[in-house]
Specification:
Elements: H1 7-19, E1 23-29, E2 32-39, E3 47-52, E4 63-69, E5 78-82, H2 83-99, H3 111-118, H4 128-133, E6 134-138, H5 141-147, H6 151-162, E7 170-175, E8 178-184, H7 190-211
Antiparallel strand pairs: 1-2, 2-3, 3-4, 4-8, 5-6, 5-7, 7-8
Amino acid sequence: MKLRTSASQWKPVADWAAKRGAQFTLEDDEAGDGCSIVEPQNPLGPLLIEWGPPQRDYVQGAELRMRWDLKLKSDLQVMIIERSLMDRLEGQVFEAYTDTLQTRIDTDTPEEMRWLVMFPRLEQWSGKVVKQRFGALGASPEMIQEWLAGALTDVLSLASQDLVPAGHPFVMLTQRGNLYLRHQMPEIDLTQLQGLMRVAEVAAREALSLNKRVTEPVWAPTDTSTFPSSTPPAPGSGA
């Protein structure tokens, strides 16, 4: 599906990237147009932002993706996912692996689906609104609870009001030292991008704080790529 985006929509995003000292690039290939923003000098670590055709079947139209190289410990694996999307993916995983009598999870299955089977979920939430709108899971319940214990719960509560509407695909997770974010965004929109950046930045800072307290292995890291892309990774990302 060819995405249609006017020059007037690109310019605010390009100007925003330039003010951040990032490189903005328009993409145009057979899959459709899109853009990438590479910010190698971000204070928290090299950041790559992409907008364009989706890489997941559950996303309709186009999506925004972020990959933030935070150099976290490999054992720090936690995920936040929009609740109705979690329920839908859980149903698909259950159906796929019971109908075919498979006893292992296919490595081609996206992480967000495999993690629903592999990892425990957070049951005790500090925020009622966030619990209603999001699911959370990770290598250990304590790890995901600590990630959400501070400012991240507050920023997710605010995001649930309009930035991430109910039923709107949203996934954010840490893995292989990086923070990843995936969000359905049919059209490139600077206001939404800035809002999601605020969510990601809080999540990144909380993950870096938690990273200092992760001292022992709790789960073997998975090793498939979360965001395969033809766009070169941010310098120093290790991807």
